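G., the chain you wanted modeled:
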Amino acid sequence: MMRLSKTIFLISVWFGVLLSGCSKTPDPQSTIPVALIYNAQIITMDVTNPQAEAMLIRADRIAAVGSIADMETKLAKSEINHIKRIDAGGATILPGFIDSHVHIRELGMDAIKADLVGVKTADEIVARLKGFAPNPKPGAWIIGQGWDEGYFASIGYPDRAGLDAAFPNNPVKLESLHGFAGFYNATALKIAGIDADTPKPEGGDILHRVDGEPTGVMLTLAQNLINKHVPAPGQEQLQQAVRAGLLKMAKVGVTSVHEAGMKAADVQAFQALQSEDQLPIRVYGMLDGNEEALMSDWFAKGPQDDPKDFLDIRSIKVFYDGSLGSRTALMRAPYSDKPDAAKPTERITPAAVASLAERAVATGFQIATHAIGDEGNHRTLNIYEKALSSHSDLDHRWRIEHAQVVLPEFYERMANMNVMASMQSSHAVGDSGWAEDRVGPVRIKHAYAWQRILAAGGRLVINSDLPGEPWEPMQTLYFAVTRKHLDGTPKDGWYADQALSTREALKAMTATGAYSAFQEDMLGTLSVGKWADFVMLDKNPLETNPDNLKDINVQQTWVAGKRVAD
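Predicted structure as tokens:
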């Protein structure tokens, strides 16, 4: 029903455009702001009209795309003297980037957290914290984010001794890069009542010293034992964080995001911003499927369809297994390195995922499941297959988030089931230093395997999963095309046979991203009748050496016909 209403809306827009180009009488649309952008290299991502030099915008939609001469014929007489003409100066124009897996709240909240990205030792963690909070108020929580749990799992997890000495009067909570581990000091452990005798919770682990005392590192669900004692941000602070995160993204060319794992307070914050017209870019909401009370409420009322597409909520993000770095992902065979140290984790039972899938089918929600390990991905496809077995004609567009390590038969299965792979180019590069150690030389051939997905006929979206790894679109594009770190290593790329072409990566970040949210009628390509969401770049990615893609600058970002950032 939602897609039908948008299709009708698109037809009406197209009909209006045709009339405006043919009418000889004053056009009612002449009162709508009109802009003509010319002298541009326009990459439309629309296979029926791939390139153009000019684009006509009426209000918040694209009215025409083509040559400058063609644009002039589309203008009503009454518009000619009032149109805003914009010389792009030869800039490249692309559809606005769609980051189809993000955590905006975390991005905004990171401004009040110590930055621990790149730290290599426990001493460096303490030094960063001292610089961030040199004189903390006694009793105040000190929160940091970004230490790489995959890296530390390889060299040995840190111990809290340094944290205890530096911050004896403050509880410390340090979130890992990908969220699968937390690092806490003695004060935080004491607040939570955790000691040598505390049993590990189901789906989590408490690491211990030789004498049995906790080291301060908590894996996966064990973090909740302490996190529940950390004061939650207020609603106003949440709204400020969300808007700050969205504005950051607008500045680097993102015009739409898929917010993965929205909790009830997050939904309230996004809806409040929408009601106040304070969402600078578009948001596709993915509810936290691990919270049953939240899901029961939404299954009862159904998806939220915003006619203007600034806040659609119709997806469910399910957090199934753990991560490869922390050895908590579900693997069919033991981990190749330190199998005894592995803690394969189901963060939600298969029965609960199956229940969500069955209710999603009945109510029109999309399911998007976090699955990292090959067994985790296999079980997810099994659940999807059963739930969809009697709905062969359903346009479900269900997704697997990450699909990081898979079994050889995964590709054909997902393609035949019309399941989409939502993957992160930064993860392949960021994990490259230790991923093969975890799974060995045979299984690594089926890890981060983007080309194998495309070769099987599967649909692929590429996104950032921010704020963990570098997340700006030009960096995401660079990682996807080169499989290299930002410093250009390794020289030939990491398993470069799985790298994408620039055009394939752009499609995965625009047109396919829109499709993965049921929004292809209005987003993803620069086509007549769609929302005027686009970016201006100082270089053409299709003509740029792949090693230089990360250096392309975003000059302007437009959403709904308005310039929102430059």
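The first strand starts at residue 34 and ends at 38.

Shout if anything looks off.
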